[in-house]
Amino acid sequence: MAYIHKFFVNSYDYLFFLILFLIGIYFYKDFGFNIDESFQRKSGLYWLKYVSDFFQANDFSILVEKKLETADDFTIPWFGDYGIIFDLPAAFFEVYLNINDPLKIYEFRHLLNYTYFIIGVFFFYKLIKKRFSGNFLPVLASLMLVLTPRIFGDSFHNNKDIIFLTFFIISIYYYFESIDKNSLKNILFLSLFSAIATSTRIFGIILPLGISFIFVLSLISNKSEFKNTKFIFLYLFFFLLFLILHWPFLWENTFNNLYDFLTHYKSSFGPSIVFFNGNFYKPDLVPNYYLALWILITTPIQNLILFFLGLSVLFSKTLKKLDEINSKRDRNDFWHNNSEKKDFFILFIFLILIFVGSFFEIKYYNSWRFFYFLNFFIVYFSVLFLEFYLNETKFKKSINYSISIFLFLMITLNIFKIFQYHPYQSLYFNLLASKEMKKKFEVDFMGLSSISFLRNLALENENSDKEIKVGVKSWYPMWRTYSLLDKNTKKKIKLIPNDKIYEAEILYSNRIYDVNIFKSKKYDFDNKFRKTREFKIDEMIIYEVFERKK
């Protein structure tokens, strides 16, 4: 009977994730194309060629080289600094399945990207289920993560930050497993996924640092932890080994390349200027509240409420524990059980990341997507509060009804916003951002709207044989999107380079600039063009259209 019960419980779990995956299959063709995607594709092809040559797979290498010759991207000098855990498999499938149509290539990558994300959500579900009691909270936590609009949107086309979120979650899952059972298997998995997370984004380095710090605290708390010293050394050894083994970038000049990677954040490619809160800044000189403000105005308010409540609960417990230790009312244990140890680790890592994100000279652009993995903490603290709350009020039915209604409305509102913004969930702002405030921030940095603009323009002129000359009134490489259009649409549209912009009849602007437009006249074409259209969602301008004055 126990086996049958377990089968049906697991069946519901699998059905839940099957539904999530089917949602991705239904929607994956709807989304625009991220300007980083062509670079990521070429990076994957480059490393696939490198690996094929390394293992002397000569016939396959020739096929990859032909693909690589057709890839075009001006950012190729920076290919080495990014991990290969998504780009290389995506390139392999593209070559192996012989996907040649540019549009099909990127649509396939979108579906693959979403698949990686759902795998991450699956491990998040398992993590929550093992840390917290009951079956309700894991489902709720998974929905909160998936239905966060910006995360849902980016889960299809963000080949770096969403992939990092996935492997960050998996790493923490296996760290929690190693806390419960310090076995060699768990240590190896923890080392492997920590290494993959680190190669994907440099922030992954917080994992070995944080785990080592917690181990030191464990030694201080309990001398018997010395018996586990070998496991921390094994973890660090295999972490470094797996980092090298899975990442071709480190197969040559290992230590020099590793140093270059660790200092990458100081010299990484990106725009020379960002627009934030109504002002232009250099990317590494934004205000200290940059990260905090972006989080506050682009995370669903309901999620924020639960997050702050959960954070306050954990803060309170931690301060109480420190007070007990300081007053010697308790032995020097920082935690009484594994659950407290896990929560303390999450709190510690979160605070370190917020400090780094606020006070280090990180080159920010495109909102706070480098830190989108902080949504893991937002949901984790939310669930922590809900467990605390439900345990404290388990005999008060009226209060439990109230929280149930709140959670139902929360999920319903998030779903509504996802449909309202579709397919631009990546550009979501919450109610804290007024109509005027939204104008003070970068919105469609990645140019997700450009392919929709070009397709609609061609459709509007389908009965005309005239070629439409289109230019760009912002810092955006539209030629990348143009290459994804079908032949008939391409025949109707001719892209005009910036140095011949006055030959254009129509201009597109995603309102992203590489100069301070309050001081520079680089994009001031008002003497020849007038704005005729704005595409808006939720009172927010996504892109603008300008036509030549007659």
Strand order across the largest sheet = 4-3-5-7-6
Q: How many helices does DSSP assign?
A: 21
- Structural classification: alpha/beta
- What proportion of the residues is helical, as a percent range? 55-70%
The fraction of residues in strands falls at: 5-15%
Uncertain parts: 1-5
Biggest sheet details: 5 strands, mixed
Radius of gyration: 25 Å
Distance between the termini: 80 Å
| Series of secondary-structure elements, N-terminal to C-terminal | HHHHHHHHHHHHEEHHHHHHHEHHEEEE
Q: What number is the mean pLDDT?
A: 90
The gross shape turns out to be globular
- Number of strand segments: 7
Describe the protein's architecture and organization.
The structure is a single chain. The protein has 550 residues and is of the alpha/beta class. It has a domain of 99 residues. Helix content is 59%, strand content 7%. The chain is globular. The protein starts with a helix and ends with a strand.
Keywords, please?
single chain, 550 residues, alpha/beta, five-stranded mixed β-sheet, two-stranded antiparallel ribbon, 7 strands, globular, disordered N terminus
Element layout with pairings:
Layout: H1 2-27, H2 37-54, H3 58-70, H4 87-96, H5 102-131, H6 136-146, H7 149-157, H8 161-180, H9 184-200, H10 206-221, H11 229-245, H12 254-262, E1 274-276, E2 279-281, H13 290-298, H14 301-326, H15 338-359, H16 375-392, H17 397-421, H18 435-438, H19 450-460, E3 468-472, H20 478-482, H21 487-492, E4 493-495, E5 506-509, E6 529-537, E7 540-548
Parallel strand pairs: 3-4, 3-5
Antiparallel strand pairs: 1-2, 5-7, 6-7
Helix pairs in contact: 1-5, 2-3, 2-4, 5-6, 5-8, 6-16, 8-9, 9-11, 10-11, 10-15, 14-16
